[in-house]
Design a protein that fits this description.
single chain, about 80 residues, mainly alpha
Length: about 80
């Protein structure tokens, strides 16, 4: 996966997230499925940003960005900073 593919995935997920929030704002609220999907989108966005940051860091360090690997949701969501 190259940077543009990751950016496109981020844009797709962000658009879906915006659509769901738009539906919530019309007074109907969100179904349980919509809430679960929003949570899933959040995790996938975090994973995409993590991969993009890994690629940028590898590039900045003079390493091959294609060797960056997508990390699991569990790893990405439980970073210790």
């Amino acid at each position: 996966m190259v940077d543009i593919d990751i950016a496109n995935k981020i844009n797709e997920l962000s658009e879906e997230e915006e659509t769901l929030y738009g539906q919530a704002g019309d007074g109907r609220g969100l179904s349980i499925e919509d809430v679960e999907r929003l949570q899933s989108i959040k995790v996938e966005l975090d994973r995409c940003y993590d991969l993009l940051h890994q690629r940028e860091a590898r590039r900045a360090a003079g390493l091959d960005p294609t060797e960056a690997k997508a990390r699991s949701a569990d790893v990405v969501e439980h970073y210790q900073q």
